[in-house]
Automatic annotation (TrEMBL):
Superkingdom classification of source: Bacteria
Polar residues: compositionally biased ranges: 1-12
Biological source species: Nonomuraea monospora
Protein name: C45 family autoproteolytic acyltransferase/hydolase
Domain Peptidase C45 hydrolase: residue ranges: 157-300
Chain intervals for the UniProt region annotation (Disordered): 1-21
NCBIfam families linked: C45_proenzyme (NF040521)
Gene3D superfamilies reported in the protein's UniProt record: 1.10.10.2120, Penicillin V Acylase, Chain A
Keywords associated with the record: Acyltransferase, Transferase
An example molecular function term from Gene Ontology annotations: acyltransferase activity
Entry annotated with the keyword Cell cycle: no
Keyword Nucleotide-binding: no
Amino acid sequence: MTFPTFTSSQTDPRARGKELGTHLREQVTANLTGYTDLFTVAGATAGQVRAWGERALEASAAWAPPLAEEIAGIAAGAGLDPWQVAVVNARTEILAGIDMVGHGECSTSVVLPKDGPPRTVQTWDWHDHLRDAPVLWEYEQASGRVVRTFTEAGTLAKIGVTSAGLGVHFNILRHDSDSADLGVPVHLIARRILDEASTVEEATEIARSARVSASTVITVVTESQAASIEISPAGVAAIPPGPDGVLLHCNHFLDPDLAAGERHATERPGTYRRMRHLEEHVEGLSVADVNGRALAMLSHEPDGAPVCAHPDLSQPINQRWETVATIGLDLPAGRLRVHQGGPCQVTEATWQTC
């Protein structure tokens, strides 16, 4: 099984968005429906969701006008209003506004070896009713930079890699300062980093320039650098690798100042168990083969850390979690290696290259 792919032929933001929205109309609409259902179960009203989408669109237009144009283009192609596509891009912010916290979420490993390219892998956990949300999207900018991203149809970026030799991983965080005063969607921060940054320092400056209302961590990797950029309304911190070149992140803040406002781990401490699992399997996470790195992530609940998640179908949709994808970055090639599903389903033949 593989995720759908799309390659844009347009470089103008609105035209590129319209082309994608037209081609992926059903998937974008299905994602909007899936998120609307999730927000409803979590307690949001239709009026709240629309207002949040409109605020997110305003914040996006003020911070990155071309990205707001691209959202408008996707909406035109998919037969939706721009605020509806903004809702899909701002789902992290809306979930923070609803104050929803869940068991699942992602685990990321980056190893910078003394020789050879970075070795990365992450699991991407999400609600099982949205397992068909992802798409692998390739687009080229007017500058000639090519970006390839694992994202959700209609969302401008998530995990990705560029022909400029920079890649990003993506994990959600929660902080006491998160609020319903919608700011710039964190997925748009990832998009601007992929579009514009060539170094960890440039990526960090992009993150610092956005007023956000929700928290996340974007782990940025280049040939010789890496940092987990923790983002929250309370501030931004860049966490470097250790002296051994290892950088691990789950769903709790590592920066001491930001950790004082930790929300996710105080309610869902499984993130600490997942981090311990990664720490105990650094040797496997350091191998050159992405399949081997994925297998080093393998751990189920209740046997150990829930790095590889499977949904409990007795729970409501806002409390059901599944490892939808396992992803590694191939920086020298500017490519993503993607497996549909969790580490327990990985084989040499299940990897999709984008």
